Amino acid sequence: MTVEQYNPNKTTTLETPVKVIEEQANTLNTTGNNARIGFISLGCPKNLVDSERILTQLRTEGYDVVPSYNNADLVIVNTCGFIDAAVEESLDTIGEALAENGKVIVTGCLGIKEDEIREVHPNVLAVTGPHAYESVVEQVHEFLPKPSHNPFLNLVPDHGIKLTPRHFAYLKISEGCNHKCTFCIIPSMRGKLVSRPIGEVLDEAKRLKAAGVNELLVISQDTSAYGVDVKYRTGFWDGMPVKTHMQQLSEKLGEMDMWVRLHYVYPYPHVDDLIPLMAEGKILPYLDIPFQHASKRILKLMKRPGSSERTVERIKKWREICPDLVIRSTFIVGFPGETEEEFEELLAFLKDAQLDRVGCFKYSPVEGATANALPDHISEEVKEERLAKFMEVQSEISAQRLQNRIGNEYFVTVDEVTSEGAIARSFAEAPEIDGLIHINDVHDLTPGQRLWVEIIHADQHDLWAVPSADQ
Question: For the residues of 383-427, what is the DSSP string, one character each?
């Protein structure tokens, strides 16, 4: 069970896409022409899916994707603008791409602030906002004309270009968000909720399964709101009616013989209906559900639902139904007006809730967030103190929960094999954001392979295991 402190040098960017682009370059860059695209994907998994869609279209048109500035005729930077540190990383990356290559197209969340980008980097070729796939491709056409190629020589897979290892993939089910959380500017960047048709989502899941994916990570800005915008309209898939709703989607995905992991789940009441599906083994007993705080007053200022008493009660009921349930959450300390008593209430909540995975951020006054107008902002010194105390409390909880797993056996998926051995995950660990299970000195495994292991050691973040005697 993991607790992590936000590292501004890392922001929210995933590491896996960099490795995958490098690995794919040797197999995909085979056309021999000069239409070569360098691609940098910053930010969260939702941004990563946007990158995959852009790259799929470019590959379909015959462009090659290369992993370095030097070999690229043009570079696309898909930016993040979630918090100030992410904005800084995006601007720095754009500057690096300009210095190393000179021809740069900018897209993604920060793209809605074109004036800000051009003030720092006036020589970028073009700027678009998030999920502007067609516009990005059109801009590429303008500055790097389509290559002539034989589409049957370099076929793009039915599931498109993926920036994840072959055995897991992100499945984005909607765009945008209807909430008005005062600390967040995502709705102003990505717009209101737009749910994908359920048949389209299930078709994509089926294609991914056929391509070798054995774990789906369901993502959106607000996964539990899926279908709200279309009033849970009934769609059709495989000739059968299916409601555009989180529960029905989870049930159908659970029939595909893949691990199904839910991320970005807003704590609506109907989330309770998903727990029996987890207990029955239809989807993984894993919930990524950002509670943000425990104080009812602070949550109200954030325009978030809930209170610590009701949330702890719900968690206890969930665990009664599904004892294996793993809960990941994120919190903000130092929100404007947060008193010492309210911070202590948050710490008490952590001890009561016994959450498995926890991330914590200091409040960041990102431009455009309505919470910036609230009175009684907290000093950076106090924010740091509260963050340190929060981490101390949750680290003890995390360490103990990991210790409790020693001696137990888990079915795991191998993600990577290094010189030290295999690195794996169980149902309790999502890729990139949670801890790892190290299987040292075992090298005869391959990424995507599954096996039973016994946990023999733990620290505050990771687990160590050996293959079980009986497989």
Answer: HHHHHHHHHHHHHHHHHHHHHTTTT-EEEEEEEEEETTEEEEE-T
Kindly state the tokens that stand for 57.
């279209």
CB 360 within 8 A of CB 5: yes
Can you give the pTM of this predicted structure?
Answer: 0.85
Structure tokens at 128: 């678009």
As beta bridge partners, residue 216 has 169, 260
Distance of CA 371 to the CA centre of its chain: 24
Q: Which of 460, 459, 463, 461 is nearest to 440 (CA)?
A: 463
Q: Which amino acid is at 111?
A: G
Dihedral angle sign, alpha carbons of residues 96, 99, 101, 103 = positive
Distance, in Å, from the CA atom of 139 to the CA atom of 57, rounded to the nearest integer, reads 13
Q: For residue 414, how far is the Cα from the chain centroid? A: 19
Rounded CA-CA distance 425/434 in Å is 9
DSSP per-residue letters across 169-196 = EEEE-EE------TT--HHHHH-S-EEP
For 318-345, what is each residue's pLDDT tens digit?
999 999 999 999 999 999 999 999 999 9
CA 118 to chain centre: 28
Q: What is the helix (H) or strand (E) element at residue 215, kind and residue range? A: strand 215-219
Q: How far is CA 61 from each of CA 69, 77, 158, 372, rounded to the nearest angstrom?
A: 21, 19, 14, 45
pLDDT single digits (tens) 382-400: 999 999 999 999 999 999 9
**Whole-angstrom Cα distance, residue 261 to residue 367?**
32
Residues 343-346: contacts with CB under 8 Å, at least 24 apart: 343/386, 343/389, 345/294, 345/295, 345/308, 346/293, 346/294, 346/295, 346/308, 346/390
What residues contact residue 102 under an 8 Å CB cut-off, 6+ apart? 123
